[in-house]
Amino acid sequence: MNHAPHHVIEVRELKKRYRLGVIGGATLGDEIRSWLAKVRGRPNPLVPVGGELDAQRAGEHFWALRGVSFDVQEGEILGIIGKNGAGKSTLLKLLSRITTPTEGTARMKGRVSSLLEVGTGFNPELTGRENIYLNGAILGMSKAEISSKLDEIIAFSGIQHHIDTPTKRYSSGMKVRLGFAVAAHLEPEIMIIDEVLAVGDAEFQRKCLGKMKDVAASGRTVLFVSHNMISVRSLCSRVIWLENGQLRMDGPTEEVVRSYLHTYTASTPRVEWSKDDAPGNDLIRVQGVRVQQAGGNSIIERDEAIQVHITLDNLQIEDDDLNLGINVLTDEEVLVFGSTLRENSETLPTFRRGTLQLACEIPAGLLNSGNYRIHVNVFRSQKILFRVQDAIAFTVHESKRSVSYFGKRPGVVRPALRWWFVP
Amino acid sequence: MKAGLRSMGEREGDWSIVIRPEQPWWRLDLKEFWRYRDLITLLVKRDITAQYKQTVLGMLWHVIQPLTTTFTFAFIFGKAAGLSPSDLPPVLFYMSGIVTWNYFAGVINRTSKTFVGNANLMSKVYFPRLVVPVSMAVSSLVSYLIQLGTFLLIYGYYFLQGAEGWAPSPWLFALPALVALMALLGLGSGILVSSMTTKYRDLGFLVGFGVQMLMYASPVIMPLERLSRIPWLLTLFKLNPMTPVIEATRAAFFGYPIDWLGLLYAASFTTVVLLLGLLVFNRVERSFADIV
Fold first, then answer.
1. A-chain residues near B123 (CB < 8 A)
2. Nearest partner of A46 among A14, A80, A21, judged by Cα
3. Average per-residue pLDDT in chain A?
4. What is the ipTM of this complex?
C-alpha cells in the first residue's frame, strides 16, 4: 500500500468510568423501599447507619481508564504492563468488547480472539472434544473450521488420552491447555492474552510462548498483558506501561521494562516490627531484618560482602529443631539462591529463649548490580513454619568499574572468577 | 488515496470492529449474528444433551408433565366444574391448550435468565449475546415437538373413535406459523425481562409467577364462550396476546372459525414486544459486564 506503517489497532482517548458502590438496590423490592423512604422524607433504609461516608462515595465515579491512545501495527507483539488497578484489565475488556467505553474509540481490523480467562465457556458435563467445538464457536469459529483443526488442537493441548472425558474431571492445568489450544488455533488477526502463562507447567508455557511468536511471525498481532517481566521481555517488541488509567510510557521493551522496574522497586534495606505486628507464630517471631555492608554502611557496593541480619524472638522453649533460611530473588522474581542456617553450620546450634540475632554473609562480588529482595523462611523439624515474603529489598550498586564498558552486565550473579591460560 | 481514506473514516469501511460509547439502538449486526450460527446449533445441542443427561426420566418427562396436567384439568375443570366446551372431549380441549402454552411459557421462562444465567461466560468472552436466547427458543422446540406428538396420538385416537361436532381443518398446515409467532412473543418478552433482571434480581422470581397468572387469563382452562356474560373478563382475556394463538391452534385442530382480528392483534403485540426487547437487550448487553 504505502510506506506508512499498517495499523490494525487504533485506540483514541479511551476512557472508562465505573460507579463506586451501588446506590441502586440489587432488587426491585429494595428500589421501591428506598423510593418510599425518600417520598416520606425518611433516611434511605439501604444506607447503613453511620454510613454517610459510604452514601457520599456511592455517587462517586472512578475512572479506570483516563484517556489512553496508541496504535498497534500488524504483526507486533505489544506488551501491556502496570500494577494492579492501573487499568490493564479494563483496557482488555474494552478491546475484547465485553464492556463499552465511557468515552473514546477503538478500531480494529480483523477477527479478535481474547483469552481473558482460559477455558471459560467450558461446560463441565461435556467432554474435551465437545468443549473444543463449543469453545471454538463461542470464540467465533465455524464448525467446519474447528473440524479441520481438531487434530492439531488436540495435539497441541497434549491431552489426547482424556479428550473424551468430561471436562469436570480435568485439572485446572488441563483446562488451560485446552483453552489455549483452541484460542491459538482460531487464527485471529488480533489475539489478546491476559496472564495465561501464569498457569501450566514450564514446558507448556514454552509452547505457548512459541505459539504466540508464530502467530506474530505470520503477520498477526498479539496484545499480551503480564506481570512477568521475563516473558514480556522475551516476547514483546514494544511495551506500553499503564499507571492510574493513563499511558505512562510507550516504547521499546527494554526501555519501558527497565524504568518500570526501577520505579516499582522500593528499596527497604531495613525493617523492624513492633511486638504485635511481628510476623510469625506463638513459637517464634521475626522482629526485624536488615541488610548492610560488612562495614556497616547501608549503601551496598558490589565489591564488598553483604550481611543480612535477622532479629528473632524465641517465645517458648530452648529449641534444637528450629531452622532459619533466606531466599534471595531478583526483582523479576528469579530465585538467585536459598540458604539455611543448619546446612551451613557443622554443629547444631540451639535457639535459646528470648531475643536472638542471626547474621549471614553473601560474599563480595557474587551478586550482580541491580535490585534484590529477600524472603525469610523459618523451619521447624524440616517443615516450613512461616515465610516473611519480601522482607527487605535492596540495591547492589556498582559505581567503581575499571573497564571501559559502563552498561549493566547481564546475569543475576556475577562472581569474580579466576581466569588463566593453561600452559 | 490516503486523504480519501481519511475523509471516508466516518464510514469505517476499513475497520472491522469499531468500539465506541454509543451505538445506535437499532444496530443489530445480523451479519455477525449469522457468522455465529454454528454456536446456536451447538448451544441447542448442549441444551438438549444436558437435559437428557441430568434427569432420570430424560425426555419422558416432556410427556408425563403435560399428560398429568391435562388429566388433572380435565378432571377438576372439566368433570367437577363442568367448564369444558360441550362439543369436545375435555382431554383434547385441555391438552391442545396446555401443549401450546407450555412452549410459550418455556421460552419466556428460559430466555428471561439469559444474562443472569450466563453471567460468568458473558463477562469473559464476547459473542453476540442474542445467540443465547435464540438458541433457548430453538431448543425448547424439542420438548414442544415431543408434546405435540403425544397430543397427536391422543387426537388421532379420539378421531378414530368418531368425531362429533369437530374435525381437523386445513389450517393445521399453518401451525408452524403459529409456533413461530409464539416463539417470537416468548423471545421478545424473555429478553425484555432478562435485560431488567440484570439490575433487579427479584424480577426473575416474578416471571414464573407472572406467566402462571397469564395462563389463567387465557383460554387454556376457560373456554371464551363461557365468559360471554362477564364482558370485562372477556376483554381481559382478549388482551392477552396468547389468547388468539391458543384459539387459532384449536380452530385448526377442531375446525372452528378463525379470529383473524385477534391474530392480527397478537402479531402486532409480538412485533412491538420484540422490538422493545431488542432495544433494551442491545443497551443492556453493552453495560452488562459492569453491573454483574
1. 98
2. A21
3. 81
4. 0.76
Non-local (6+) Cβ contacts of A226 within 8 A are A79, A80, A81, A195, A197, A232
Residue B11's pLDDT is: 45
Strands A77-81 and A238-243, bridge-based pairing: parallel
Q: Considering CB atoms only, which of B14, B50, B288 is closest to A125?
A: B50
Using alpha carbons only, what angle is made at residue A358 by residues A356 and A360, rounded to the nearest 5 degrees?
A: 180
- pTM, 2 dp: 0.71
Residues in chain A: 423
Q: Is A24 on the interface with B (CB under 8 A)?
A: yes
What pLDDT shows up at residue A58?
46
- Which among B110, B253, B248, B242 has a CA at the least distance from the CA of B182? B242
Helix (H, G, I), strand (E, B) or coil at A87: coil
Domain boundaries in chain A? Answer: 74-100+109-263, 270-397
What pLDDT is stored for residue A141 in this prediction? 83
Q: pLDDT by residue (tens digit) across B46-89?
A: 888 777 766 666 678 788 888 999 999 988 888 888 787 878 88
Nearest to B198 by CA among B102, B288, B274, B120: B288
E-assigned strand segments in A236-305: 238-243, 246-252, 270-272, 284-293, 300-301
Q: Is the dihedral of CA A362, A368, A373, A379 positive or negative?
A: negative
Q: Show the cell assigned to B77.
A: 375443570
What confidence category does residue A400 fall into, taking pLDDT thresholds of 50, 70 and 90?
low
Could you give the CA distance from residue B151 to residue B134 in angstroms, rounded to a whole number? 26
Residue type, A330: T
Chain B contacts in chain A segment 29-58 (CB below 8 A): 29, 31
Residue A313: beta bridge partners?
A285, A355
A270-272 and A246-252: which strand pairing?
A: unpaired
Of B252, B277, B274, B279, nearest to B263 by C-alpha is B252
Residue-averaged pLDDT of chain B: 85
Average pLDDT rounded to a whole number, residues A330-350: 82
Contacts of A125 in chain B (CB under 8 A): 49-50, 53-54
Cβ atoms of residues B201 and B116 within 8 Å: yes
- Average of per-residue pLDDT across A161-175: 86
Q: Does A117 touch chain B (CB under 8 A)?
A: yes
CA–CA distance, A387 with A326 (Å, rounded to integer):
9
Angle (CA) A92-A97-A99 rounded to 5° is: 85
Q: Which has the minimum average pLDDT: B25-34, B61-70, B282-291?
A: B25-34
What CATH code is assigned to A270-397?
2.70.50.60
CB count within 10 Å of CB A105 equals 17
Q: Domain A74-100+109-263 class?
A: alpha beta
Tell me whether A142 touches chain B (CB under 8 Å): yes
Question: Closest residue of B to A124, CA-based?
Answer: B50
Confidence of residue B10 (pLDDT cuts 50, 70, 90): very low
Which of A97, A130, A135, A191 best probes binding to B when mutated, by most B CB atoms within 10 angstroms?
A97
CA distance A27 to B91: 41
Instruction: Assess whether pLDDT exceeds 70 at residue A50.
Output: no
The rounded distance, in Å, linking the Cα atoms of A91 and A94 is 5
User: Which string of DSSP letters, residue by residue, matches B244-292?
Assistant: HHHHHHHHHHHTPPP-HHHHHHHHHHHHHHHHHHHHHHHHHHHHHHHH-
